[in-house]
From TrEMBL:
<dbReference type="InterPro" id="IPR006016">
    <property type="entry name" value="UspA"/>
</dbReference>
<dbReference type="InterPro" id="IPR014729">
    <property type="entry name" value="Rossmann-like_a/b/a_fold"/>
</dbReference>
<feature type="domain" description="UspA">
    <location>
        <begin position="1"/>
        <end position="131"/>
    </location>
</feature>
<protein>
    <submittedName>
        <fullName>UspA domain-containing protein</fullName>
    </submittedName>
</protein>
<comment type="similarity">
    <text>Belongs to the universal stress protein A family.</text>
</comment>
<dbReference type="InterPro" id="IPR006015">
    <property type="entry name" value="Universal_stress_UspA"/>
</dbReference>
<dbReference type="Pfam" id="PF00582">
    <property type="entry name" value="Usp"/>
</dbReference>
<feature type="domain" description="UspA">
    <location>
        <begin position="152"/>
        <end position="285"/>
    </location>
</feature>
C-alpha cells in the first residue's frame, strides 16, 4: 500500500523520536523511505551560517540509521523551497505514496514545521498524509508510548461524501494488512429530517444501512472486528470523545473536498482533528483534476 514513503524531518528532538517509532509501516508494505529536510531559501542560508553542513549531515545520518535498523532502505535529501510544493513534486516525479509528519511546534532551525507547517502539508498534499501523534513539546518519551500502531484499532469517520468514500479504500487496505478492530463512525446533525446526505445514487439508503454496506464490504478481507457507531451532534467533539473512550490508535479520514460547501465542513473537521487528536491520523486527499494523480 505504501511501498515508498517520505518522512518530512525538521531535525528536532521530536523528529528523532518520530522516526524511531514507525516500524509498523512495514506491515502496510512500506520498504523505501526518503528522509527529507526542506528549507526555505532564507532558512537554508541562515542554517548554513549557524550550523556547519557537517552537523546537518550528521543529524540526517543518525536518523537514516534509525530507519535502516527498522528494516527500511533509506535515502536522505536536503532541498530548498516551499515544503508542500517540494513534497508534491517529489512524490509525483518519483512515485512516493505517503507523507509522514509529526506534531511538534519548534524545530532545531526554528521553523514551526511539525506544527503549523504539517497542517499546511496536510491540506495541500497530493498523497495521503500520516500524522504521527506525539505530545507537543515532550519529545521522545511520549512518542515511545504513542507510536504508530494501526493494527490495533482503526476509526473511520465518514460523512458519505465522495472523498470520504475514497478514504474507505485505505480502510480496506489496512484490514487486509492486519488491522484487528475497525469502527465505522457517522455523526448526524440533530435537526429532524436533515441528516447527512449519502452518496449520489444511494439517496434511498439510510445512514445506518450505508454503514452496514461498508461493514459488509470489509468482511472477508481480513480478521478485523467491525463495529458501527452513530452519533448526533457536532462531528469534531463526537469523534474526539470516541477516540479517547475507546483507545483508537489510527483515524482514517478525508482531508478536504473539491466542493466549497464540503470543503468548509470536511476541511474544518479534519483541521480540528489534526490539532486535537490523541491518536495518529491518516488524511486522504481529494482528487483534483489536472493537478495530480493519486495511487
Amino acid at each position: 500500500m505504501f511501498n515508498r514513503f517520505i518522512v518530512a524531518t525538521d531535525l528536532s528532538p521530536a523528529s528523532f523520536a518520530m522516526v524511531q517509532h514507525i516500524g509498523n509501516l512495514k506491515l502496510c508494505g512500506a520498504r523505501h523511505c526518503l528522509l527529507l529536510q526542506c528549507l526555505s531559501p532564507e532558512e537554508y542560508d541562515s542554517t548554513v551560517f549557524a550550523y556547519d553542513t557537517k552537523v546537518l549531515s550528521n543529524i540526517l545520518r543518525q536518523q537514516k540509521e534509525i530507519l535502516k535498523n527498522q528494516g527500511y532502505s533509506v535515502e536522505t535529501r536536503v532541498v530548498s523551497g516551499n515544503t508542500k510544493h517540494q513534497l508534491n513534486q517529489i512524490a509525483l516525479r518519483e512515485n512516493y505514496a505517503l507523507f509522514v509528519v509529526g506534531t511538534r511546534e519548534y524545530s532545531l532551525i526554528g521553523e514551526s514545521f511539525l506544527g503549523g507547517g504539517a497542517n499546511d502539508v496536510m491540506h495541500h498534499a497530493c498523497k495521503p498524509v500520516l500524522r504521527l501523534r506525539g505530545d507537543l513539546g515532550t519529545g521522545e518519551k511520549n512518542y515511545a508510548t504513542n507510536h504508530f500502531r494501526f493494527n490495533e484499532h482503526v476509526l473511520y469517520p465518514t460523512d458519505f461524501s465522495d472523498n470520504s468514500t475514497r478514504a474507505f479504500r485505505y480502510v480496506k487496505e489496512l484490514v487486509a494488512c492486519g488491522a484487528q478492530r475497525v469502527t465505522l463512525f457517522h455523526v448526524q446533525k440533530p435537526q429532524h429530517g436533515h441528516s447527512q446526505k449519502v452518496r449520489p445514487g444511494d439517496a434511498g439508503d439510510s445512514p445506518l444501512q450505508y454503514l452496514k454496506d461498508l461493514q459488509e464490504a470489509l468482511r472477508g478481507i481480513g480478521k478485523a472486528k467491525i463495529r458501527i457507531e452513530m452519533r448526533e451532534g457536532s462531528p469534531t467533539p463526537e469523534i474526539l470523545r470516541w477516540m479517547l473512550e475507546h483507545e483508537v490508535q489510527l483515524v482514517v479520514m478525508a482531508s478536504h473536498c473539491r466542493n466549497m460547501v464540503e470543503e468548509f465542513f470536511v476541511g474544518s473537521v479534519s483541521h480540528d482533528i489534526a490539532r486535537h487528536a490523541e491518536a495518529s491520523v491518516l488524511f486522504i486527499p481529494s482528487v483534483h483534476p489536472n493537478s495530480w494523480s493519486v495511487q
